[in-house]
Amino acid sequence: MRELIALEGPVTIERYMSLCLQHYYATRDPLGARGDFTTAPEISQIFGELLGLWAAEVWMAMGSPSQCRLIELGPGRGTLMADALRAAKVLPAFKAALSVHFIETSPTLRERQRAALAPSGVAVFWHDRVEDAPAGPAIIFANEFFDALPVRQYIATERGWCERLVGLSDAGLTFGLSAEPERTLTQAPHRLGDVLEIPTASIGIAGTLARRLSSDGGAALFIDYGYWGPAFGDTLQALHRHAYVDPLHEPGEADLTTHVDFHWLAKAGIDGGASFHGPVTQAAFLTALGIETRARSLKQRATEQQAADIDSAVRRLTEPGEKGMGELFKVLALSHPDLEAVPGLPKGRFSKAES
After folding, report:
1. Residue 5 lies in a domain
2. Where does residue 128 fall: left (phi above 0), alpha (psi -120 to 50 degrees), or beta otherwise?
3. What is the pLDDT of residues 69-95, one digit of tens each?
4. 322 pLDDT tier (thresholds 50, 70, 90)
5. Can you say whether residue 148 is alpha, beta or left, with left for phi > 0 and alpha for psi between -120 and 50 degrees?
6. Structure letter (DSSP) for residue 134
7. CA 355, CA 353: separation in Å to the nearest integer?
8. Nearest to 141 by CA among 63, 39, 61, 235
9. CATH number of residue 104's parent domain
């Protein structure tokens, strides 16, 4: 990274994140106790099972097409999909209609996914890009996917919005600003120093998915930590071995993320011809899908310790605050315009000011 900047000059936050994350995900399994973070599917099987039942309901609302692509973006170890397919067995016609498509570039994670999906009996295919997944009606999962896509950052200065860059100082990598402001940005900052994040990669992918859904039918479910903007603030963070570290420390060795602004995803969906639903908190979504009922069912066949583990997992998925994912994580769906309702989510609407 230092050699690149010395040769070409400072890089944007977007390029810095992109280069770091390409290396990071290509060289390791980042999940679990030995990795850098843990996702909801790794916390409890209930999470993936509920999403499998959600997908089955959506499939029926779509008119039960004889062929349906079940697509997951950034599928981690394949745990979510394995749990979802197990739950899908309650509707044999749905499972028989499915082919599974993973959007995944990491060779390490592809092997983990292959092993996880082997018992499912469902055809599984891997693709490097969203655009490579075959056409046709689709149900799409993106759990903790958009937070790991690069963003552009702009800082409010007396000269206007100047893009935040990564450059070099005597001490190593450092943040700086572009010499000239970005004239196309018209948002009015609250104060000097405000940070505006624009998730260009996320907007592009959400738009691609929306155009596909509006053409071929189906729905896409996005679950991530974030907020409903527009808003100002620097949310860039780095996680290494479950602890926060300096984003410029050891590039490519930590997980770089930002909080997802679901307003951008919804707008990209509308611009692409889709409808949007939500967002709601993860707690509200999982509760609407019956997480408590499923937990009680599992505990009937569990040991005392297993029952305690189930309760602990449900709390972590639904509780508010720093220890829980219930409020920080939000859920939003895009769908074909004719799909008036999706389970667990109200129809989304922009206010006049937002639109």
Report:
1. no
2. alpha
3. 999 999 999 999 999 999 999 999 999
4. confident
5. alpha
6. P
7. 6
8. 39
9. 3.40.50.150
